[in-house]
Amino acid sequence: MSSIPANDLHADPSRFPGLDVYAVAGNPISHSKSPAIHQRFAEQSKQAIHYGRLQPAIGEFAKVAKSFFAAGGKGMNVTVPFKLDAQVLADVLTPRAKLAGAVNTLWIKEGKIYGDNTDGAGLVRDLVAQGIQIRGARILLLGAGGAARGVMGPLLEQEPAQLIVANRSSAKADELVGLFHDFANNHHAQLESRALLDLEDQIKTPLAFDLVINATAAGLSDQSPLTAQAVSHVFVPSSFAYDMVYGKTTAFMQQALHRGARVSDGLGMLVEQAADAFLIWRGADASIDPRSVLSELRT
Ligand code: ATR
Predict the structure, then answer these.
(1) From atom 2 of ligand 1, which residue's Cα is the shortest distance away?
(2) What parts of the chain have a pLDDT lower than 50?
(3) Ligand 1 mean position to 247 CA, how many Å?
(4) DSSP letter string over 114-166?
(5) Best label site of 38, 76, 150, 223, fewest CB within 10 Å?
(6) What CATH number corresponds to the domain at position 139?
(7) What is the pLDDT of residue 219?
């Protein structure tokens, strides 16, 4: 058990002598569940760490992160809107962080800052834990921003039959698909782009999808990226609809439920990406149980 109360969210390493200090950085950050998740992993693996939170002003991420590491901080999770700044800051990037174009996990080793991206792996593990078969599946990914890009590589690695990226602005979907063209070929996946509005057209989108992932920011404003007409082409009762937003049944999830499909929010992805970060920092043999932490968060 950690001797530090879970509600002590300071992130100045000098305040916690003898403890390895980690933090999550974002803006805003007050509602982040990462401190609670990592403290539970620390308790499960009987490790004493301190995990705080940081809210750099926009434009000040690099300064804040550098002083955190200079003061002895061991590792950092990075969330909206700093994942690109974190990628720029890192001295060394893992291949999947390069592919994702963003970094959500930083750590320091021999004076160098390393950057990784565990979001896509977290999504895949949550899907698998929920019984979803990705290999051979027809997948629709909604959105073409950072959240969508972050999960493209890990999804394609699972060799779905097809991955269609649909975005409000079709140019952005085209661009994202272009970036992953070779990667998709190497993993025997058919990769295509669409405008969201093309999903209304049964000629352009003739078949429903096994898995539909909402990686747009629409849910944050209680909207769905899918029109009512698109919904009837996209979902069948055997579809699984996954929203990366967590903590509510979004408009997108409601549409899927009305079509009889199964749904999930993104809380499991949050816990699983945190688990990957914890294992990177604390060693792959750390004994943690992400699914039990997820159940605790849901109660
Ligand atoms: P993130 O890093 O969270 O992906 P982002 O890069 O700003 O954030 O991307 C937001 C995504 O949500 C984009 O795909 C955006 O579509 P556009 O590229 O067309 O702007 C999408 N998005 C935001 N609000 C939306 C809405 N109301 N309906 C559909 N898509 C929306």
Answers:
(1) 146
(2) 1-6
(3) 19
(4) EEE--HHHHHHHHHHHTT---TT-EEEEE--SHHHHHHHHHHHHT--SEEEEE
(5) 223
(6) 3.40.50.720
(7) 81
Q: 66 an active-site residue?
A: no
Q: What is the pLDDT of residue 9?
A: 78
* Ligand 1 pocket residue status of 101, Cβ below 6 Å: no
Pocket flag, ligand 1, residue 83 (CB < 6 Å): no
Atom 3, ligand 1: which residue's CA is nearest? 147
Q: Is 145's C-beta closer than 6 angstroms to any atom of ligand 1?
A: yes
Q: Amino acid identity of 259?
A: R
Find out whether 200 and 230 touch, Cβ atoms under 8 Å. Answer: yes
Residue with tokens 């390069």: 98
Shared domain for 55 and 32, answered yes or no, is yes
Angle at 162 between CA 159 and CA 165, to 5 degrees: 115
195 to 42, 80, 89, 216: CA distances (angstroms):
44, 25, 33, 13
Q: What is the pLDDT of residue 49?
A: 96
**Domain residue limits at 157:** 121-265
47 Cβ contact list (under 8 Å, min separation 6): 2, 282, 286
- Determine contact, residues 187/216, Cβ cutoff 8 Å: no
pTM of the model: 0.95
Within a domain: 3: no
d(CA 231, CA 21): 46
Q: Contact 55/90 with Cβ under 8 angstroms?
A: no
- Per-residue tokens: 112: 């160098």
- Does the beta carbon of 255 sit less than 6 angstroms from any atom of ligand 1? no
Separation of alpha carbons 76 and 255, rounded Å: 36
HSE (side-chain half, CA atoms, 13 Å) at 196: 19
